[in-house]
Amino acid sequence: MKKMVLCFLIVMLMAGCSVVRIDTSSIDVIVDVILSKDNNLYNRVGRGYKYYVPRGVTYIDTDELNDKLYSDGNNYYLYVDTVSYYNKIPIEYEEDPNLYYSRKLSDDFKYEGYLEITTKDDLYYINFVYNYAHIESVVPKEDINDAVLNAAYILSTIQFNPDVIKLTIEDAKLNNREEKYDKFKNKKDTNNAGIEVFD
Questions:
Q1: pLDDT tens across 41-95, in order?
Q2: For residue 31, is pLDDT > 80?
Q3: Would you list the DSSP string of the chain?
Q4: What is the pTM of this model?
Q5: Please, which residues have CB within 8 angstroms of residue 160's CB and are 6 or more apart in sequence?
Q6: Alpha-carbon span 145 to 22, nearest angstrom
């Protein structure tokens, strides 16, 4: 019995379980820690993408590629840009030192993006773009770090399904046929009795 307990303790020590504690007092640290991790979790699936909604955040509704989420009195609006992902359009952003927070995310992370926080009437507008997705939220000052933490988790876990996106884009192209229209040309039509009518 003692050998078994000793073996168990040795195995536990050798396994080297590690816990990463995030210092949530700094926006830079939150962004750096979360976006540097490989997160493959997901619990929400959309049309051509999936992502993870962290504990404490509630999914509310979806409208096309826009998801509404909620946490601690704050709404989050997530937009997943599958067209830009499909066409590999780069994200361009210039940092603005006049804002409450402005940071371009590129070299140190897997994907490009930016985080911008502006102020208006004692509220803070968070505009977080990363991994071809975009989260917006308006929060009071005391909720900024939690909102950035939640947004970073969500954006870092977005995974795309290129085959579904390709089918969706091709289907949209087929349904959007152009029709040539000449407003100076009379249209010939027939009424219910089969008589030709000109407009």
A1: 888 888 889 999 999 999 999 887 789 999 999 999 999 998 899 889 988 899 9
A2: yes
A3: -HHHHHHHHHHHHHHT---PPP-TT-HHHHHHHHHHS-----SEEETTEEE---TT-EEEEEETTEEEEEETTEEEEEEE-HHHHHHTPPP-----TTSSEEEEE-TTSSS-EEEEEEEETTEEEEEEEETTEEEEEEE-GGGHHHHHHHHHHHHHT-EE-HHHHHHHHHHHHHH-------TTSPPEEE-TTS-EEE-
A4: 0.72
A5: 48, 49, 82, 85, 132
A6: 11
